[in-house]
Amino acid sequence: MRTPRQQTSSVSIGLTPLIDVVFILLIFFMLVTNFDGLRLIDLSVTSGKGKISAVKQKSFSIEVVGNGQCRFAKNAVPCRDVRKTIESAENISLIQTDKPVTLYLKPTEETSLQDLLSAIDDLSASGVRNVLLAGGKS
Description:
alpha/beta, single chain, 6-stranded mixed β-sheet, Nucleotidyltransferase, domain 5, 29% helix
């Protein structure tokens, strides 16, 4: 006696709706992504073994302590006021173009990366452009 076979139907997924969903997601992420908020900070790292330049540059060493504080000439100063402090103490302008002035930022052992980036951001906001990151002890 023969038993009747059940017919199995194969289920196929259409590619057209899948491609439509992928394109809708692509368009959605393109519309909601905001690239205007990204800012780049030019950052040069010195090795401490550079050659002496023939151009006479004035340079200042700033120690980044943390919590928005920097140390210039052994005095604690808010990082946002470093430019004003140096300009008043040295009677120069840090943002003039005819005489290059370099600020070397040196983090302490306790300085976090966020504190260092905040100090760089504060100096950039105050108009200082030539900021270099000085390394610690080798």
